[in-house]
Amino acid sequence: MRTIHVIGIGAGDPDYVTVQAISALNDTQVFFAMDKGEAKDDLVALRRLICDRFIEKPGYRFVTLPDPTRAADVPYEQAVDDWHAARAKLWARAIETELPDGASGSFLAWGDPSLYDSTLRILDRVAEHVDFEFDVIPGITAIQSLTARHRIPLNDIGEPVLITTGRRLRADGLSGAAVVMLDGDCSFRGCPPDTRIWWGAYLGTPDELLVAGTVGEVADQITEIRAAARQRHGWIMDIYLLRAAD
């Protein structure tokens, strides 16, 4: 039977790759990667760099798949479900045609496969059409990288932390502490000025950006830096931790 490894490769720094991940990399004959357009070519390039660095024997290959477009004119949940369905159809065909029986393939997940990543949900759909076994290799998340680079604990003593999105932050507001991901609208600007924020982009890469302070002090700075970085690179991955004032 075919085997699929879902490998968390960390938040950008190849040094984040774990020994367990290196073992799975070396067990892989075919790597499947999504082509998200020219602007994000460096994301595929980093995956290739990790393979070149850690795989001991040549002979593996990359199969690059065009990423389906996610509709912008339908409700969010429907758009995501349709996008996942289109990806699952594409992946099923690729696994059937590109991965022989008995061989091992891998999907390399940025950060950790369990955190705001669609790979596992899509593979559940793929399994309805193609027989394979799979395992999951955890990776260092952007959350861990953010707190390490800012040299802070994630939570206050005995206090919870919410992991959410910019869309949910705008809808629900902030109570206590929250890690915010997938925020293209700088939703932190709607928080009280004395809210603490620790922000980071391109974590673990040579392009890493870090800003910390209160929303009142640094919201404009983050917004400007973020816009300039996105224009420069054509894409941005950022994340931030918010902590409401006592």
Automatic annotation (TrEMBL):
GO molecular function, one term: precorrin-6A synthase (deacetylating) activity
Keyword match Lipid metabolism: no
Domain of life the protein comes from: Bacteria
Pathway(s) the chain acts in: Cofactor biosynthesis; adenosylcobalamin biosynthesis
InterPro entries: 4pyrrol_Mease, 4pyrrol_Methylase_sf, 4pyrrole_Mease_sub1, 4pyrrole_Mease_sub2, CobF
Gene Ontology biological process terms from the UniProt entry: cobalamin biosynthetic process; methylation
Keywords from the named record: Cobalamin biosynthesis, Methyltransferase, S-adenosyl-L-methionine, Transferase
Boundaries of every Tetrapyrrole methylase domain copy: 3-218
NCBIfam families according to UniProt: CobF (TIGR02434)
Protein name: Precorrin 6A synthase
Source species: Mycolicibacterium neoaurum VKM Ac-1815D
